[in-house]
Amino acid sequence: MNRIDRRTYLALVGGATVAMAGCSGEDDEPSMDERDADESATAADDATLSDDPDPGTDSVSERAESDDQTDEAELGELLEVDPLSAVVSTLEVVEDAVIEPDDEVLGAEDGRAFAVVDVAFQHADDGVEPVIDVDETVAVELGNEDGKTYDRVDELEITALDPTASRLAPGEVVRGDLIYDVADDAEGLVLELEPEASGDSVVVDLGAESDDERVETLEQEVAEVETFSQGVDHGGIDVAVGSLEHGNNLGGFMQSDEGYEIVAVGVTVHNGSGRDRALTPEQTQLKDDTGRIYAETSGTMRTLGGLEDVTVSDGESYEGTVAYQIAEGTDDLYWIFDFTEWGETQRVFWQLR
User: What are the CA-CA distances from residue 296 to residues 144, 156, 326, 332 (Å)?
Assistant: First the structure.
């Protein structure tokens, strides 16, 4: 369903006002020439009003001047924001945000709250780039019906799990929470998804109660998934998952919180690319079958020798372990290594269980 934006609405109201002002009395019947002149003047006034910018809604105004439209949607609907599919599942407004993997609590200031929006994206078009950046493909903004917008919370632990900060291979799904700083009495919240290129935008009404039975689910459909212990070579760099441990207490610092377990992934990287290569945490992810991201556990990373701030010289190999804390009972785990930062547009998936 197409939405009339605020500026278009004002133009329509303004046009009606001009037309009414031209009526001097019920008995004065204007001539045909007078009516034609009035209609031309009204059309000119409408055009002038529609060219006036609407303060605080520049993005909406710019879209109104293009051929693109803005569609309305509800929670749980399958959305198409080419080349992405998306589902906005739930909204929670809370005073405290719990940050995984260590369950840190971030408290809102007086009079403020956190709007937590559960959203998922899928790279739905294999005819474009083999790997795309979500935040370079779609702009996501929280606002209200009056055009006010809200800032995203930028705590480091939260941004690490931000689904819009992910890259996606064709068929890949990412899911996570977007957390915004809002007034504790905020009402009429909407989430706008606007393509960075051409295409229709979508505004999701977050105020309606979602029906779990009606919430669409994006299913991951990547072309190839490696099995445990398989190595993959791209551009002379070979990456393999060589070991896997999981449990509540794996010894040393590897002890999980109650209701959680530790998953420790042993990785070997051999560099035969002809140049030194720097490893970064952004190149790796652990996901479940819904696409939800799990962060590395901060307490074990340095002890185990992870993949942070490591340079592998040409012709050498490096072995490290990356540990994650996940909820007990989580099925179908996938570990992902991204070669894109090294000029190879490939994301490789290993199914861990």
Answer: 34, 13, 10, 18
Alpha-carbon span 345 to 114, nearest angstrom:
36
- How far is 4 from 9, CA to CA, in rounded Å? 6
Residue 207 burial (CB count, 10 A): 14
At residue 7, the 3 state secondary structure works out as: helix
Number of CB atoms found within 10 A of residue 15's CB: 17
How many domains does the structure of the chain reveal? 3
Q: What are phi and psi of 296, to 5 degrees?
A: -65, 145
The dihedral of CA 30, 31, 32, 34: what is its sign? Answer: negative
Q: Which residues contact 47 (CB under 8 A, 6 or more apart)?
A: none
CA-nearest of 245, 247, 311, 250 to 275 is: 311
Between 26 and 283, whose confidence is greater?
283
Query: Is residue 271 domain-shared with residue 194, that is, in the same domain?
Result: no
183 and 81 within one domain? yes
Q: Residue written as tokens 């560099």?
A: 271
Residue with the bigger pLDDT between 169 and 309: it is: 169
Q: Which domain holds residue 54?
A: 6-65
> What are 172-213's pLDDT values in tens digits?
999 999 999 999 999 999 999 999 887 789 999 998 776 666
Cα separation values, 333 from 18, 99, 147, 251, Å = 63, 20, 40, 22
Residue 111, by phi and psi: left (phi above 0), alpha (psi -120 to 50) or beta?
A: left
Q: What is the C-alpha radius of gyration for the chain, rounded to an integer number of angstroms?
A: 26
Give the span between the Cα atoms of 177 and 89, in whole angstroms: 10
Region 234-247 average pLDDT: 88
Residue 226 DSSP one-character state = B
Nearest to 264 by CA among 207, 303, 315, 210: 303
The SS3 call for residue 274 is coil
Cβ pair 334, 286 in contact under 8 A: yes
Of the candidates 157, 73, 184, 154, which has an alpha carbon nearest to the alpha carbon of residue 119?
73
The CATH number for 304's domain is 2.60.40.1240
Question: Rounded to an integer, what distance in angstroms lies between the CA atom of residue 316 and that of residue 138?
Answer: 39
